[in-house]
Structures are given as structure tokens and as C-alpha cells.
Amino acid sequence: MRYPYEKEITLPNAVPIYLVNANQLQNFQDHKAWIQASAFRADPGTYCLIPGDDGIGKVLVGRPEAIDTWTLGALPAMLPPHSYALADDWSPEEATKLCLGWRLGQYRFDRYRQNQSQPLAQLMVPAPVDAAYVDAATTAVYLVRDLVNTPAGDMGPDHLEDAVTTVAKTFQAELQIFRGEDLLSENYPMIHGVGRASDEAPRLLDLRWGDPDHPKVTLVGKGVCFDSGGLNIKNAAGMRLMKKDMGGAANTLGLAQMIMAMKLPVRLRLLIPAVENSIAGNATHPLDVLPSRKGLTVEIGNTDAEGRLVLADALWEGCREDPGLIVDFATLTGAARVALGTELPACFCSDEEVGTGLIQAGLAVDDPLWQLPLHQPYRSMLESKVADLSNIGNSSYGGSITAALFLQEFVKPAIPWVHIDLMAWNLRSLPGRPEGGEAMGIRAVYELIRRRFT
Question: What CA–CA distance (Å, rounded) separates 179 from 165?
């Protein structure tokens, strides 16, 4: 496991950082000429280095109207590699957000680069910061980013299993694994059907942690380590980023690690169906009919709609213990990206109170989601003439909703359930969020669980 601070450096004297708006520039009259020469107007996202006797004396940063997690997120890559400190007094919540954003902005994926990244600027942790939360959140996000960024050749089902095993050992969690033909004998036929064409056997990773008497929380993550589309093969553009199709699994593993690191009083279960959707003589065909763990039969309208199949078996197993909350993460549909773009995950929820709580939690920690409806009239689009249901809708519209409705068939109605359809990838770099693999929604769900069960 890679921790996020391995490249940081510490210098004896920290350079103070002042967050200022245009009106507050008058507090720095001694440096008026320098500020004007630098054309610094305290716009949000800008900064100005003020000289001191021995180098940089202070840093002025444009202050936004509201402080959020990303206020300082761009600075680690922009400032010289010194130690810095927040100069002003901040509330614990604000200081924690500022520190977390800085840490997330330090991320670099350089596993395959001969020339390693240079040291980045370091922010000294001020007293009011919730350091345990910052450490747990940063390490979880780094884990997610590393897993998603790793090429599929080095992040197949075997490697994903290794990552889950490492986390399980770190937190002394129980881990049970069903591989290959065992999936059939243990009644996970759709996980087997999706992954059987790969040289790496499909498997279900089942992690448990925490006091059995605590409230039960179950996470399910789509672990399609590479998605060729199966026999309904993707084109080159569609296949290019499919190393990220295990982004749901990566996000649930990061979230599980965060829950365990913070010792939330829950009985945690993590289910990851880890497969590769490959092409071979034994691959599932279009219009094949697969049985499911629930007993429903599913007609395969398209082999490229495979994520919902592996999730369905895992979700039904997750419901067996009647948890107080079940949450799945999946890079499931392009339709959700068309609706909301790549940076805002879609969420669906079977419980109004939980759905409202999740949206509020996401806004509170600057990890937003947007709720879409489980519009029941669209359920008829999943009807099949030969099986209990089809894995795709009979219309090109509402694809994220019909996918969610398919999954809902495999969740007990009495169990509060959240489905998160996410990109797991930044197409552009933003403060604290570099281009590449990304954790989306895990801090929001963590906050929901913390509020609901502690």
C-alpha cells in the first residue's frame, strides 16, 4: 500500500500562507509595490509570492467567497517545494478541508516513470485539523487513484484480489474468495458467465470487518478489470479507457479502508465481483440466457452490459444478511455521463430519507452527487420474451435509469439501497483532482454512514 507523503520534504521554517480578498490587500501595504508589479488582485485560484529576507517571506492566495476542500488544492504543484503553514485562525472544519485539499493535490502516479516526480510543497498541519480524518481520507483516495490508474495488464482480477487481501490484512478483516468453477457451485452464475472467457478466473471477494453486533453496512463494487465489450466488442475509442471499469471496486475498497481506519462502529461487508470481460470461444453470447443467484433468468441483450450482471449476483448475496444500508459503486452507463457530465456521479436511492441524507452529506464534504429517479414505468423496458428480464432496455433513452431498475430487481425492498453510477476518472485536472483515476462519492458515503450509524 502506498501512502501519500513519501515525497514530502520538511524545512525548518514554514512560509505563512494568507488567504485574502481584494479588500484585505490593504493589510499588506508594506508590499504594495510588489503586489502591483505581480498583477495580483486576490482573485480566487491565484497567488503571489512575497519576498522575505532569506527567500519567500509569505504567500498571498486569492480567497473565494466560501472555503471548500479545493481552495488550496492546486498549490502543492505550483509553489516551490518548501514547508508552508496557514497564517490565519480557522475553524476545525475549515482547517480540515484546507489541509485535505492540499494533500489530495500532492498526488502523483509515477509508477512507470523512470524519472520520479520532484518533491512537492508541504503544508504543516495546524492544530484544529482532524488529522485522523485527513490521513484516512487521503490514503483512501490515493488507493483508489492508484488502482484505477494502473493499466489492466497489471490490474487484472488477480491483482485486484491482492489489493483487497492487503487491506484485509492491514485491518485484520475476514476475507473469503470464490474463484472460477467455485462460483457455479456456490451459485454466482452471472459473475462466472461474464468472466469465464478470461485467462484470469472470475471471482467474488467477500470482506467482513467489525463487531457483528454493530449496524450492518454492505458495500458492493463493480470490479470489471477490463471491458472489451465481450462479443458485442467495443470500438477502439470505447475500449481505450476500460482499465477504469473496475473503478467501482476501487472506490468501495477505498471507502472500506477509510471506514476501518476511522473505526466506525459498523459491521462492514465488502463484496467485489472481480472479472475481465474478454472474448474467447466460451464467452457469453448475445441472447444467451443466464440464471442468477436470486433465481431470476436474464437474457443477455448485449454482452457489453456486463457490469450489472456481476453486481446483481453480489447485491442479492449482500441482501442475505439484511444490512441497514447497502451501497454499490459502478462505472455503469454512458447515459449517466451524458446526463450529468463526467465530474458529477449519478445516484439512485430506494429510501427517500437516505437519499436526502446522502446529497446533504456530499455537499457538506465537497463530494457532490446528483440523485436521479428510479422511475418505475421504465421497468417495462427490461422485459424479455424468453427470460424473466433483459440486461438492457429496449430503448436508447434513459439508460442509467433502466440500469438502476435492473439492479433494483436484486435488492430486497425493505433494505435502504444506494446505487452510484460514476466515471471514476478525471478528464481534466482541477485543484486537488489531477487528470486520471479518481475517487468519487466515497467521502460523501462515509459521511452518510458516520451520521447515520454513530
Answer: 14
